[in-house]
Design goal:
By secondary structure, this protein is of the alpha+beta class. It has three helices and nine strands. It starts with a helix and ends with a strand.
Length: about 180
């Protein structure tokens, strides 16, 4: 059973779009990323069709058996891509404890998700994309302390300290002018 170079190309083009779904730290995802993934899918489809029709040619001319390898690679790729597109921004290994929502000065939607392993995500939702900032959190009395992994100077979208208001179920920033987050639950 000889695996030809064209199958390695097909496998490489099937794996290539998945680099856009790996997010170990802060990241942004939007229309540009979807265009890049679509480009890889077009290259994959062209390569698949060339290999497929070459196999059909070999069946008719040389009386070889049909080779199912490209079809199997394509089916696995499509299932994996469909699953990954649906789950790439979900945290399947973490359980959400609390979700707070708010709006920035520019009217962008903000969402803070607190997880059971004392990590958080701040999602900033723009019209055609969104960005996620990650970090760890802790509570000290009625204050939520957020420790971002990559601190960016000049980031005034959200603060590192919020006071938890029990009656309104909200997070109020220590400094004025920053967004107030309201509990979703």
């Amino acid at each position: 059973m000889k695996l030809r170079k064209r199958y390695f190309l097909l496998i490489f083009l099937a794996i290539a779009p998945f680099y856009k779904f790996i997010h170990p730290e802060n990241y942004c995802f939007g229309d540009v990323d979807l265009v890049i993934i679509g480009g890889f899918m077009v290259l994959f489809a062209i390569t698949f069709l060339v290999i497929f029709f070459n196999n059909l040619y070999l069946i008719t001319i040389k009386k070889e058996l049909f080779n199912f390898r490209p079809v199997i690679i394509t089916v696995v790729f499509l299932i994996a891509l469909y699953t990954t597109l649906g789950l790439h921004d979900k945290n399947i290994f973490q359980e959400k404890i609390k979700t707070y929502k708010g709006f920035s000065k520019e009217k962008d939607q903000l969402e803070i998700n607190l997880f059971d392993d004392n990590t958080f995500e701040l999602k900033i939702i723009y019209p055609k994309s969104y960005c996620v900032e990650k970090g760890e959190y802790s509570f000290k009395n009625d204050t939520l302390l957020l420790d971002k992994y990559n601190k960016v100077k000049g980031n005034i979208i959200f603060d590192d300290m919020y006071v938890y208001n029990d009656t309104q179920k909200s997070l109020n920033p220590i400094y004025s002018g920053l967004p107030v987050f309201v509990s979703e639950k």
